[in-house]
Specification:
Strand order of the largest sheet: 4-5-8-7-6
Distance between the termini: 111 Å
Mean pLDDT: 74
Number of domains: 2
Largest sheet: 5 strands, mixed
Order of helices and strands: HEEEHHEEHEEEHH
Strand content: 15-25%
Number of helices: 6
CATH architecture of the largest domain: 2-Layer Sandwich
CATH topology of the largest domain: Beta Polymerase, domain 2
Length: 188
């Protein structure tokens, strides 16, 4: 076998050019890495040259979240006004408001009202929920919509109970939350 010819010495400029490999080019955006195979981000990371492309700019914008729009949450009195107006519009019957500000920490007001039938109770509750949503109230919780005998709407500062008349008479919430109770409630 013959002897191979020794390789010519490599100039420093050629070494730098060989180690610098362009990975991706997008509209004048050069992303490259230094080193050789296996050196990647450990030995210098990525280096960007030139202006950002429209693709890179749109990708960066897509990662940002939406701007926060501040909606002022209505206070308890405004929430109560919205609820009572809707109950009046929907022809809810025998509506009573109980002021809980000095009696309980669960809410400022409790509204108890009746609908004529299961369908009327469900319709009244849905319309109250729509108005509260339009007013910017978030986190409103609802219980009892599938059966519509008793629908509870917890709007934070205002709690709304929409009953069928028979169910309302059975639970009698107004008596339980009435001020100046003198007697105790008996268990039956």
């Amino acid at each position: 076998m013959g002897k191979s010819k020794p390789a010519a010495p490599i100039e420093p400029a050629e070494t730098a050019a060989m180690q610098r490999k362009t990975v991706e080019t997008v509209n004048e955006l050069h992303i490259s890495y230094r080193g050789g195979p296996g050196h990647g981000a450990r030995d210098g990371g990525t280096e960007r040259e030139g202006p950002l492309s429209t693709v890179a700019i749109s990708r960066a914008g897509a990662r940002r979240g939406p701007d926060i729009v501040s909606k002022v949450r209505p206070d308890a009195d405004e929430t109560l006004r919205i609820v009572l107006a809707r109950l009046d519009d929907m022809k809810a019957e025998d509506t009573s408001t109980i002021d809980l500000r000095n009696d309980s920490a669960i809410a400022d007001y409790m509204v108890v009202t009746s609908g004529r039938s299961n369908r009327h109770v469900g319709s009244v509750a849905e319309r109250v929920l729509e108005d509260l949503d339009e007013a910017g109230l978030t986190g409103v919780r609802v219980e009892g919509m599938p059966y519509c005998d008793w629908v509870l709407i917890d709007a934070g500062d205002v709690i709304v109970h929409v009953f069928r008349p028979e169910v309302r008479a059975f639970y009698n919430l107004e008596k339980m939350w009435a001020r100046g109770r003198t007697g105790t409630r008996r268990a039956s």
